[in-house]
Structures are given as structure tokens and as C-alpha cells.
């Protein structure tokens, strides 16, 4: 029954422009789900929030105001009375209120309070998502997350931070993590970060790749900083469970609310390892509105030295070889083209059967110099764009680092 409710939420709660209405049969199923103990209260709260905020058909409106079995814990959404301070905040957002930067920071104090029930936190995140967070709200949330997360410094004058969405890949080989040891092998210290698995995609992640390779993805910040400062390694991976345990512990909430909240946009920008001079951040986005969000955040938060925002495969930084890709480097959007760097290929169709081992095998084949094909070009292309656009002069060429075994050595030394 929970799976059926999740499917209904995915259909109804996508957003103001992409969501679809529910049929009479689906509304009848929704009624069953809403009264079933087999369905999670957080998911029920999330879909009710979607009904209150999105445009409804006549039948959906009739269902909303005739359904009398709303779980009592979330009935305040329809008949508000004796509201708590956090309920007052989230009900205002449900009604379309924008919060100031300070108000958002204060709201996040409640959000991280373990005494606040999960379903109320889901209502808040879903309401912000459907209303669309404004610039102040994004900054206020960023401030709150930054202040609660842990950071460590490295002495490297340059540190490239590959900041990719934590929910992973599920249609494409996950090759971008192998850019880190490649850059390290040409004298450019690099950090990546993430989690083992998280909603909504639960895809292939750097954590899973490292684990499959027999590496430890749960090193402390001090250990990662030491790896990055060691020339024979030069790169590191930080897990969110180490750098931001408070947010990591909210994974069940994110699973139950199904949709991707603002947390997904901001968590990848926390820069758990930092250079004293500021990081060179490389991040990605999926939908065009997020481009502006990311640009404003990186400009206004003043936490980076330079940044690059790419629209790569699966909303990541992994650039496609068959077409141009949008890129923002602080002064407006332009395009990066594979042929500029001597690459290009036919389109590779999505493949949902790809797993962790597939990505690990392909990445290691590239680092060892055995793979001279599309996977190698994918990794070298991204590394080339990073060096070029940031104006970083490497100690040796990327090709030399691969063919000599230096890149593989940096990976194995991790």
C-alpha cells in the first residue's frame, strides 16, 4: 500500500508545471492509502500538502473537502487551531508566504529539533519546494546547514571540490568520481563527498564505488585532509555521515516524503574540506531554474574562490560527449563543447541495468590506461574543462598521468 501511495505522490506532487491530476479511480485508491496503517504518515502529509498547494481538478477538490478521515496529526493543515510555533511557520509557507533569510534560519532550528515530528518537517520541505524557495530562503537554509556541518582545512593553495548530487546515477556509468584521482595525479588536489545511498534515486554513488573497490569511505575529516595533502594521494572522499551527521540522520524523512527537497540542492555545497584560499567548486543542476538558484547561492554565500556550474548527465557534472552542455562560471551562461577539447561521440542511450561494479570496472580501466574509448574521453573531457576554465596549470598532461599509471597510483593509494 505504501508503494501505491508513493506512486500517487510522484504523479500529483511533481510541481506546479509538471504534476498530473489524479483520476477518480486513483482518488479512491488515495482514500484507502490515507486511512491505511500500512502507509507512512510522512508520505500522507506530503501528498496532502501537494493537494493544498497545487491546482486541482473539480474531482480532486471535491475529494479534498469531502474526505473526513485526515489523520488527526496533520488535520491542522485544514482546520488550524492551537498551532505550535513551527506549525505556524509551515502553514504560512503552505499558503504561499515567503520567509526572510533570518526567518528561514530560525525555521531550520525547528527543522533540526529532534522533538519536531518527521511529518511536520516533510510538510515544510514540500511546501517550500512547491512554492519554490526564493533567494532569501535558499540563503537562510544554506546558512543554517553550513553552520551545523563540520569543516576541516588543508594547506593546499588550490582545492577542486566536485560537488555532485548525493542520490547518484541510475541510467549512466558513474565516472565523474575518477576525475578526482586523475586531477590529483597532475598536481591538482581534489575532494569529493556524498552518502552511500539517498532518496529519490538511490543510485550509484562514490561511496558505493569506493566500498566495492575495498576502500574506506568513512574516513574522518582529519584523515581525508591528510590524504589530500599527501602528494602520492592528492584527493579524498568525505561521507555526510561524518561531516554532517544531523542531516545524514534525516534520510528516513527524505525517503518517506519521496520528492527532492531543498536539502538535495544545498547539501552538496557544504565543502567539508576547504582550502584556506577558498575552493574551486564544480557542481551541476538538472532543471534550468536551479541554474539561477545555484548561481545566487555561490555568489551570495561568498564561500568559494571560483565556481563552475554544469548541466551534465543526470544533473551532474559529467559532461556528455555527443552534444554541447550549458556552463556558468560566474559571468553568465555559455556552452562547453566536446569538439573544442578533441572529443565527441554518438549518443549513448540510458541503461538502467548499470550497477556499481560496472562503474568501478570502467573507471579503473581508464585509470590503468587499458580503456582508450568513450569512458576515457568522458573522464579526460571533464578534467580538461576544469583545468581550462579555472586556469589551473597542471604539472603534467592528463594523458601522461593515465598512460604512466600515476592516476591509478593515486586511486590505489587512497
Describe how the helices and strands are arranged.
Blueprint: H1 2-12, H2 24-35, H3 41-53, H4 58-66, H5 85-94, H6 101-111, H7 118-131, H8 135-148, E1 152-154, E2 160-163, H9 179-185, E3 190-194, H10 206-212, H11 221-229, E4 235-239, H12 240-243, H13 245-248, H14 251-257, H15 262-266, E5 273-275, E6 279-284, H16 288-301, E7 304-310, E8 325-328, E9 333-336, H17 356-367, H18 374-390, H19 398-403, H20 406-413
Parallel strand pairs: 1-5, 2-3, 2-6, 3-4, 6-7
Antiparallel strand pairs: 7-8, 8-9
Helix pairs in contact: 1-2, 1-3, 3-7, 5-7, 6-8, 7-14, 8-16, 9-20, 10-17
How would you characterize this protein structure?
Helix content is 47%, strand content 10%. The chain is α/β, with parallel strands linked by helices. It has two domains: 2-146, no CATH class; 152-413, Nucleoside phosphorylase/phosphoribosyltransferase catalytic domain (Pyrimidine Nucleoside Phosphorylase, Chain A, domain 2, 3-Layer(aba) Sandwich), CATH 3.40.1030. A hairpin with a 4-residue loop joins strand 8 (325-328) and strand 9 (333-336).
Output the helix-strand order: HHHHHHHHEEHEHHEHHHHEEHEEEHHHH
Terminal residue distance: 44 Å
Report the strand count.
9
**Spans of 5+ residues with little confidence (pLDDT < 50)?**
none
The CATH topology of the largest domain is what?
Pyrimidine Nucleoside Phosphorylase, Chain A, domain 2
Classify the secondary structure makeup into a structural class: alpha/beta
How many DSSP H or I helices?
20
Based on the structure given, which CATH architecture of the largest domain is correct?
A: 3-Layer(aba) Sandwich
- For the biggest β-sheet, the strand order reads 4-3-2-6-7-8-9
What is the CATH H-level superfamily of the largest domain? Answer: Nucleoside phosphorylase/phosphoribosyltransferase catalytic domain
The CATH class of the largest domain is Alpha Beta
**What's the mean pLDDT score?**
95
Q: Give the number of domains.
A: 2
Q: Give the overall form.
A: globular
Assembly form of the protein? single chain
Measured as a percent range, the helix fraction is 40-55%
Summarize the main sheet.
7 strands, mixed
Q: Compute the gyration radius: what is it?
A: 22 Å
Amino acid at each position: 500500500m505504501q508503494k501505491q501511495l508513493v506512486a500517487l505522490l510522484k504523479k500529483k506532487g511533481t510541481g506546479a508545471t509538471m504534476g498530473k491530476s489524479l483520476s477518480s479511480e486513483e482518488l479512491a485508491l488515495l482514500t484507502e492509502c490515507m486511512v491505511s496503517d500500512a502507509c507512512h504518515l510522512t508520505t500522507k502529509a506530503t501528498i496532502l500538502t501537494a493537494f493544498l498547494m497545487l491546482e486541482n481538478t473539480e474531482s480532486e477538490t471535491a475529494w479534498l473537502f469531502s474526505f473526513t478521515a485526515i489523520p488527526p496529526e496533520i488535520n491542522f493543515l485544514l482546520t488550524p487551531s492551537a498551532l505550535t510555533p513551527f506549525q505556524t511557520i509551515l502553514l504560512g509557507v503552505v499558503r504561499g508566504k515567503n520567509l526572510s533569510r533570518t526567518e528561514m534560519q530560525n525555521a531550520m532550528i525547528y527543522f533540526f529539533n529532534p522533538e519536531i515530528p518527521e511529518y511536520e518537517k516533510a510538510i515544510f520541505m514540500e511546501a517550500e519546494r512547491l512554492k519554490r524557495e526564493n533567494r532569501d530562503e535558499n540563503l537562510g537554509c544554506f546558512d543554517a546547514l553550513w553552520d551545523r556541518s563540520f569543516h576541516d582545512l588543508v594547506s593546499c593553495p588550490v582545492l577542486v571540490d566536485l560537488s555532485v548530487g548525493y542520490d547518484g546515477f541510475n541510467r549512466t556509468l558513474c565516472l565523474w568520481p575518477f576525475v578526482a584521482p586523475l586531477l590529483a595525479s597532475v598536481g591538482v588536489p581534489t575532494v569529493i563527498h556524498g552518502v552511500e545511498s539517498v532518496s529519490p534515486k538511490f543510485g550509484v554513488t562514490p561511496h558505493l564505488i569506493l566500498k566495492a573497490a575495498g576502500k574506506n569511505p568513512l574516513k574522518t575529516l582529519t584523515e581525508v585532509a591528510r590524504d589530500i595533502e599527501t602528494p602520492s594521494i592528492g584527493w579524498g572522499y568525505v561521507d555526510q555521515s561524518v561531516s554532517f551527521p544531523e542531516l545524514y540522520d534525516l534520510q528516513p524523512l527524505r525517503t518517506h516524503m519521496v520528492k527532492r527537497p531543498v536539502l538535495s540542492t544545498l547539501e552538496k555545497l557544504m565543502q567539508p574540506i576547504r582550502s584556506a584560499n577558498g575552493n574551486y567548486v564544480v557542481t551541476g543542476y538538472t532543471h534550468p531554474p536551479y541554474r539561477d538558484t545555484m548561481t545566487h547561492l555561490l555568489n551570495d554565500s561568498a564561500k568559494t574562490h571560483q565556481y563552475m556550474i554544469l548541466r551534465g548527465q543526470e544533473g551532474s557534472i559529467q559532461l556528455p560527449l555527443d552534444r554541447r552542455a550549458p556552463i556558468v562560471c560566474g559571468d553568465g551562461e555559455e556552452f562547453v563543447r566536446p569538439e573544442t577539447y578533441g572529443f565527441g561521440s554518438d549518443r549513448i542511450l540510458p541503461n538502467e541495468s548499470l550497477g556499481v561494479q560496472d562503474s568501478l570496472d570502467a573507471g579503473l580501466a581508464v585509470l590503468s590506461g587499458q580503456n582508450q574509448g568513450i569512458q576515457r574521453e568522458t573522464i579526460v573531457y571533464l578534467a580538461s574543462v576544469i583545468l581550462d576554465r579555472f586556469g589551473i596549470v597542471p604539472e603534467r598532461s592528463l594523458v601522461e598521468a593515465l598512460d604512466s599509471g600515476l592516476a591509478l597510483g593515486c586511486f590505489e593509494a587512497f
